[in-house]
Amino acid sequence: MSLLFKHLRIHQIFGANTDVGKTVLTTALVRASAVAKREAFYLKPISTGPIQDADDEHIIRHSGPEKERVHTDCLYRFHVPVSPHLAAQLAAGTESQKIVPDGTFINSIVSHVRRCASQASGPAHMYVETAGGVHSPTLSGSTQLECYRPLFLPTILIGDSRLGGISATISAYESLLMRGYIVDAILLFRDEYYRNSDYLKPYFSERGITVTALDAPPPKLDELTANFKSTEEYYEKLDMLPTLRHLDTRHEERLAQLASMPRRSLDAFWWPFVQHGLVKGEGDVTVIDSASSDFFSVYKAQDTQAVSHLESQLDGSASWWTQALGHAHPALTLAAARASGRYGHVMFPQATHAPALELAERLLHDGPGKGWASRVFFSDDGSTGMEIALKMALRAFSVRESLEGTDRKALGVLGLRGSYHGDTIGAMDACAEEGVYTCEWHNAKGYWFDPPTVSIQQGRPVITLPAALAPTAPSDLVSSESISWVYDVARRLDTPLADEYRAYITKTLRNLESSGAPRLAALVLEPLVMGAGGMIFVDPLFQRVLVDVVRGPGPASALDTPWRGLPVIFDEVFVGLYRLGMQSTIPLLGVAPDISVHAKILTGGLVPLAATLASDAIFRAFYSTNKAEALLHGHSYTAHALGCEVANETLRLVEQERHSEAWVAAQARWEVASGTPNTVWSLWDPDFVQTVSCADTVAEVMALGTVLSIKVKDSDAGYVSQSAQTLLQTLKIAGTEASELPQFSIHFRTLGNVAYFMTSLNTAPETIRSIEDKIWRALQKSS
To answer: Which segments within 123-249 are labelled E, that is strand?
Structure first.
C-alpha cells in the first residue's frame, strides 16, 4: 500500500510527544508549499475534540495568501477530546468494540491520497498529520507506528523543545527507525533556556538527518481577532523554504534511486536460482522498496502522474518459505534489537546465554523434539543444519557397526527421489543426482525410492503409485475416502496397500544389499512434502512403512528407544513448525526420528538460524574423552543471540496463532475439530481447492496448512518448464478496479509445471479469499 508519486511529494508528520507543535509547524509547511506555487494537500486522518479546535480548521484559518492552493480534509472526526481509540469506543457505545479496523482505516487514507494525486494539476505537496506521539493509539487501539506502517510514507518528526525533550525526541526517532520509517527531517521550536536543538543538531547530523530549530509561536490571546493577527504575523516571519527544498530533494533522490536500481542490480548481482541469460532487461527486476505483513512494496515506473510508483505485491512464496508472521513484525524486530543491545554476537563453544538456552529447552520439551530428542546443535540455515545431521547419523552408524578407515568413506543414504536438503555439497550428496540440482563435485551416495504421491484430481483425493509399484495394483491411481483418511496413518497400517509398500521396500533393500551397492547408513526424509523437488506430497503411509522397515522388528514408534537398523533423519526445514498446520510431522507419522532439522519459520523469516535436534543415542556416539571423536563442526555465528531471541519470540507468537479465530474457522471448513491431534487441514478453502482441481488446464492440486500447490497439464513437465509461470502470468498484474482495496499483484515462484502459493501463519482470511479469486480468474482466462 506504499504510495510514491512523481508529482505529489508526500510526508507524514509524527510528534515526539503530544503538544510539541505538530499542527503549528505543519501549517507553516502547508503555507510555504502554497507560496512556492505548489498545490498543498493536508490530511488529518483522525481528529478528536471540538471542531473549532480541530487541526484542519487551524490550517484553513491560517492557510496564507495562497489559500486557493490549499486543500484540507479529515477522515474520522470525534467531538470528545480524548485519545482516538477511546473516542471510537465511546462513539460505538462499548469499550470493547473496534469501530474501524486498521485495514479499513489505511484503505481510506490510500483512497484519499489517490484522489488528491489525480486532482493535482502540477507539482504538489501533501502532509499527513498524526495525532499525539508516535505511540499514541489509533481507532483500533494499535499504536500509530504500527497502524501507519503499511503506507511507508517519508516522515517529518516534530521534536520536543521542552524539559526532557532531548530524550523524547531521540526515543521517538529510534521507535520510527526500528519500524523502518524514513525520517527526512526533524523540526522543533527554539527554546533559549533548554536549548534542546543545540544538542539534537550534531546528534542527528552524525546520523545523516537535518534538524531545524524554528521560533516558537506567540502566546494564545483571548480576543479572536487579535490572536489571528498575532498568529499570522508569526507565520509570515517563518522561513520554511530551506526545509521545503530539503524535502523536495529527498523526494527526488528517492525516486532517482529506485529508478536506477534495476540497471545497477543487473550489473552487480549474481542471483540464486536465476539464469541470467533469460533476464531480458530492467523490467524483469523486482525492486522491493519495503515490505510489511504479507506484502512487498515494489517500484514500477509510471507515465501517468496520478499513478503511484509503488505497487503492493503479495509475497506469494512467503519469501522462500521463511515468513511465519509477515514481514517487519514489530515484536520480532524488538526481539532482535533486545538481543543486539544485550549481546551483539558472542562465541558459543562451552558457553551459554539466555536466548540460546531458552530456545534449546523450548525445542526439546515443548517443541518438535518433545519426548525423543536430548540435544540441540545450532547452526546458520537449513542446508548447514542438514550437513550436521548427516555427520551425526554417519558417525553414529559407523560407531555402532565398528567401521574404520575406508569403510566409513563408502557409506550412502536412503531417501526418496525428488528430495532436496540444501545447496551445500554434503546436503546435495544426500539427494539423487538428477535434474538441475547438481554441480561438478556432486556425488550422489545412496539409493532413492520413487514415492507414491497424494493429490486432488477432478475433485477427488487420489494416491498415485510409481511405476515400480503400479503393476501390483489395479491402477496407478488409488482412490481415497478423503484427505483425512489419507493422513490417518495409524488406521492405514493394516491395509493391503501398506503390505504392498512393505514388501516392495523390503525386496528393494535386499536386492541392494546383494548387488554390492554402497552400504546404507541413514534414512533421510522430507516428511509429507518434498518442497524444492516440485511440491511433491508423499503418501505418508509409505514414509511410515519405510521407517519401520529400515528400523527392523520391534516397537518402531517407541520414542525413548535407541535407534535400530538405520538412524532416521527428518528434514523439517520446510514442513515443520506449522507450515503444514502442525508443529511437527512426528505425531501424524507415528514415529520419531533420531535426528531432525528445523529452520525457516524458526525465526519468522527475520534472521538465519537452524537447529539440529538429536536423540541421546546419537549424542553418545560422539561422547568421549578424546577430542578428536567430538562433533568438530561449527559456525562463527553458532547460536547467534539475535536469532535465538527472535526464534523464542516467533514460537511464542505462533503458539498464540494456533488458537486464533482464523485457524479455528479454517479447521471447521475442512471438518476438523480445533485442537484434534493428527489431523490435516489448510488455510486454503476446500471448495476452492476442489474447484481448481477440475479446471481444464490443471492436472492436480494439493493443499496443507499454508501451502497450495497447482500442477499444470504439460507434456514437457519438469523444473525448466515455463508452463505454470505462463499460465498464471496475469497474477503479476495488480487489479485496477477502484473498489478493489487493497489492490495488489502476486509475486509467486514456480517449480517447472508446478505453481505454489504460501501464506504466513497469520495471513488475514480476506486476503487469502482475494488470492483464491485472483488465481481462479487467471485460470479462467487461460482456458
So the answer is: 124-133, 155-158, 183-189, 210-214
